[in-house]
Queue: 4 jobs
Job 1
Amino acid sequence: MRLLKNKQFWGTIIAVALLAFCVKDIRLVELQELYRRLSLVYLIPAVAGTYVFLLSKAFRWKLLISHQQKMSTGRVVSLYSAG
């Protein structure tokens, strides 16, 4: 009975249902074709740049709220990336 009242349980159920809905029309052949056309020369810097951008925005957010509350960098990054 406690499991049905747990917010994380229902959040997980909803997340899995939405993920299944989002990927229901994706075909494996299309993914293989996309993978063949993929250029790692552009992908690797794009992924690295995304992480640098996320960390810099989280650090900026930490500086903005440092007057009200002290938070660890790891906590700030997880909260910012979740938002």
Job 2
Amino acid sequence: MSNIIGADAAKLAGLQIDLLQKIRHGSLTVDQMKWWLSLNSTTRNHHMEENIRMTPCYEAPNGEFFPTPEHLVDEFSVLVDLGIITVPNDYVHKTQLEKFDEQNHKDLYYYFRDRIGEDNFPNPTRILKPGDKLHVRVFEPAWDKVTITLEECLMFLSLQKAVHTGAPGASLVYSQRRDQIEKGKWYCSLDEKDHLWTYSVGHYGVAGIHRNSDDSFWFHLVDFEHVCNHAKAILCFTEVECDETEKS
């Protein structure tokens, strides 16, 4: 211990605090610690090398990090790049969904119309402001090869450094890019669970846009608990860097 000084001592103290918190919260058990400490150095190094691809990059609402396997990157492909959308100058977060309904109710069928509104989606993780620019890509999970949950889709979006705009983001995609939405797909605008509306049965609703084969559109909700199928696609909103040029 005499060689552990300065910054190393501070790191060790932080690790001790983190260790105790994980044990108290149940995310790490005493038996797991005993098993780890019983290994010799060579075996521990082997386990670390085997799991080097498991990078902690997804932070849950409670602040706990979950390892996101790098292989998730290989389970998604870009369905369409919608380019850069700009939040209109007259955009008002509190009234966006109500205004969107008034402007589009004749052309847009609402699946759960009364449930997609500011009362149920008042606080997306990323609240948009006039003039904001976001690059929007649509990713399709490899549903024919593996079973992907919407929770894993959220983890994948963290790898893309995505921001979660919720129902308002989906409304802007419809307003500015509906001609680029592929037929037969639900374009889901994900968010963390504590920012979603909860059904009476305890499920979480994710807002999105669907384009039917006859070119009609739905503004809809899907259950966060559902797994992905051939009809689901994931909207990925990322902040536009200063040097990015606007795409048409």
Job 3
Amino acid sequence: MGIRNDVGVVTEDLAGSEAKSVAEAADEDARLEREADRLLAEHGMRLDGAQLYTQKGLLQKITRELRRLPEAEPDGLSARASEFLMGRFIQSRLDSAGLSGARRSVYALRLRGLTISEIAALTGLSRQCVLNTTSLAKRKDRRSSDRYAGLHEVYWREVRRYVYRKPRRGRVMGDG
């Protein structure tokens, strides 16, 4: 049966003896670490220059590294990369629609995912005006966009990809 002392070290209670003191537990841990280092050195694992971590130190290192990593969305892209790609997509859609200033900004908001009501509240336009503007922009965008856009790149990627072909059986070259 284990006894938990005041700093959280669990020690074994054998034959009714009292729990080890904190200092004795620390000495025991240090002795075990020295013994582990000696065994590792015996088997050719040198610890010179190696950075070893305690469990607490390792957890601190992991949390420090996690704070340094860019935050990623569920799709795996960072927020900055996602915003850049979204901006490029919206810019290409707006360019293909060929819209003027006010219509362009309304359609950009719609492409960002805002609802008709949200756009109307944000811009001060009526819902019907926003609806008419976005439907006009969609029609212009659909008419002007090339339905074969990107097909050239897909063709070249497919033509150049490696495909394993099983060797033929039967006749070997050189057999008459």
Job 4
Amino acid sequence: MDKDNLEKVPQGMMDELNHVAERINPHALNTILMNTDFLIRTPLIQDWYLHSNEENRSKELKLIKHIWLHDPQFKAEKPKKLI
């Protein structure tokens, strides 16, 4: 995916995505895909998954591509400077 088209997410969600990617066995992908209740249960990812306007399958594919296939789908928002 083009770097300009990556979905911007909070830094905390990026941290959760990286943490999940480190913990999950890539060989378990088949089991996860067959699970009808696919959801990574970390707070920020869960909030994004439940409150985004995208269809659930589209969101699942983004998570799968980002975590297991190492195909970036997200980028962290730049920190906001308060004046």
